[in-house]
Design brief:
α5 (156-174) runs parallel beside α6 and α9 crosses α11 (372-380). This protein is of the alpha/beta class. The strands form 4 sheets. The protein has an 8-stranded parallel β-barrel, surrounded by 4 helices. A 3-stranded mixed β-sheet has the order 8-7-15, covered by helices on one side. The protein is globular. Helix content is 35%, strand content 13%. It has 14 helices and 15 strands. The two termini are 16 Å apart. It binds flavin mononucleotide. The site of flavin mononucleotide has 19 residues, from β5 and α6. Flavin mononucleotide is lined by residues 64-66, 106, 108, 137-140, 156, 228-231, 233-234, 246, 248, 281.
Length: 486
């Protein structure tokens, strides 16, 4: 195998931004008590928001995944917005009413099987003419494990070795068909070229599969790979495998640090400095004037963190009922129940660190003179006011992100469904276009083209040609995707 160009070792900012919309489903940031709040499950909500995003030339429409309703003190979490249709089913329906926008399904590697998931994602990719993506997550709570026959909860380190074997296997399945496998002429003797669809065998620690893949390549070769997960293992995994990181670092300084870290990891993985794009999760609160935007933010926050939500938030860390405490009073003086706050119950839980955290928070709230509600509102605020402001203010700030190359775009979580993108598309997008940092048309017809990603290098490159692709027993590292070339 040979590459015509060597991967770039210096990161070069593109000066451009892309937008995605993250329709979250279950979450605590979507305002459901406003008069304009719509359904989280009606197809009309999905259609409305996806078509608005497409009107605004958004690159991607994202769906999150949570395979079980969140729990709170052993009960379903009644304060969360609840409603999350299966991502691939919803995206398949959206494929029929959209033309250009990418369709990103968050799917975990812990409870799926690679041959099955690769097939379903290929199906979405073919149905949408090359617009599918997979947001790879590992899922970090024990409730989800309880949904499955296998049950249990994988340790953090195991989740990523498992994910790596999973993604390697999926890539091989997608790469098992040659590009010109299918006859293009009715006069051909065969429907598919002999040997063009190969068998994939993998026999490793996590999986043993023997697959004859059922589908040919899509218009974008194979689904685009996003990754969400922030630990060092998660970042290295993304640097080896992903096209785009759905990050948790929207603030400029933090985003720049994250970019530097990812570039280093990507180079260490033998890929180019620009090969992995970064799109942080973010919330935009916009209005015509700065003053109106601040008032709007205060209103949104009051609905996101009402008195009950504030108490419930602390209960996650205290592992006990705190309903007797006044949301407008000081933080609880009783200690957390450590056994009830294990991190196996989700990222909000801190286990043995709960007591230390409670002491720290009590001291902080006291020093700043904050009530429970004010403290929780400050703690859960998605960063400072970077994305709160007038359309022109926020457009200026975003132009700075484009100039520095801190991110390649943002994955916006609308706080209102289904009209939460209207002001962004109607007012912010034109401001960004005027500043020359946002597309004025879709670059192509596939998600890969629209994100400016190079064609992927075959994951079986370097293998002996022949009818079967296989991994060595127990090995997943010998087949890491080679650097993409421009
Ligand atoms: C921005 C972001 C979005 C995520 N979205 C999901 C999701 O929709 N579903 C899910 O099960 N996990 C989601 N995760 C969780 C990760 O897949 C992972 O399990 C978790 O972050 C723990 O791994 P880590 O220690 O590497 O961060 C998300 C993580 C991040 C940072």
């Amino acid at each position: 195998m040979s590459h015509s160009t060597r991967p770039a070792t210096e990161f070069t900012p593109s000066g451009q931004l892309q937008l995605g919309v993250f329709f979250q489903g279950v979450n605590s940031g979507t305002v459901w008590k406003a008069a304009e709040s719509g359904s989280q499950t009606d197809f009309e909500s999905f259609r409305r928001i996806a078509q608005t995003a497409e009107r605004g030339l958004f690159a991607a429409f994202f769906l999150g995944e949570g395979l079980r309703l969140r729990e709170h003190l052993g009960r379903p979490h009644a304060l969360d917005v609840a409603g999350r249709p299966d991502a691939q089913t919803a995206l398949a329906a959206l494929a029929a009413v959209t033309t250009n926008i990418g369709l990103v399904a968050t799917q975990n590697t812990t409870y799926n099987d690679p041959a099955d998931l690769a097939h379903r994602l290929s199906t979405l990719d073919l149905l949408s003419s090359g617009r599918a993506a997979w947001n790879i997550v590992t899922t970090d709570n024990a409730w989800t494990g309880a949904n499955f026959r296998r049950g249990g909860y994988l340790d953090h380190a195991d989740r990523y070795t498992h994910a790596e074997a999973f993604v390697e296997t999926a890539k091989r399945i997608w790469d098992a068909w040659d590009e010109d496998a299918i006859a293009t002429s009715a006069s051909s003797a065969r429907w598919s070229a002999e040997g063009a669809a190969r068998r994939v065998r993998h026999n490793g620690r996590h999986y043993t599969v023997d697959v004859v893949p059922r589908l040919p390549r899509s218009a974008q070769y194979r689904p685009v790979l996003f990754q969400a997960g922030d630990s060092p293992e998660g970042r290295d995994f993304a640097a080896r495998q992903a096209d785009v990181i759905f990050s948790a670092h929207p603030q400029l300084d933090d985003a720049l640090d994250f970019r530097r870290d990812i570039v280093e990891r990507t180079l260490r993985a033998g890929r180019g400095a620009n090969d992995v794009k970064i799109m942080p999760a973010s919330e935009f609160i916009l209005a015509a004037t700065p003053q109106e935007a601040l008032e709007k933010k205060a209103w949104v926050r009051s609905l996101q963190i009402g008195p009950q939500q504030a108490i419930a938030y602390l209960e996650q860390f205290w592992g006990r009922e705190l309903q007797g405490y006044d949301p407008d009073g000081p933080l609880p003086d009783i200690d957390p129940v450590v056994e009830e706050t294990s991190e196996t119950r989700g990222s909000g839980f801190h286990g043995a660190k709960a007591r230390q955290l409670a002491d720290q928070w009590r001291a902080e709230a006291k020093e700043k003179g904050l009530s429970i509600r004010q403290f929780v509102s400050a703690k859960t605020s998605r960063g400072d006011s970077t994305f709160t402001g007038s359309y022109t203010e926020v457009a200026d700030r975003l132009a700075e992100y484009a100039r520095t190359g801190a991110v390649d775009g943002f994955n916006i979580s609308p706080w209102l469904i289904p009209t939460g993108l209207d002001d962004i598309v109607n007012h912010l997008v034109p401001e960004l276009q005027e500043r020359g940092v946002y597309p004025t048309q879709y670059a192509g017809s596939t998600l890969r083209e629209n994100l400016g990603l190079a064609a992927p290098v075959r994951a079986d490159a370097g293998n002996e040609p022949g009818p079967v692709t296989s991994l060595d027993k127990g090995s997943v590292t010998g087949s890491v995707t080679s650097p993409a070339t421009a």
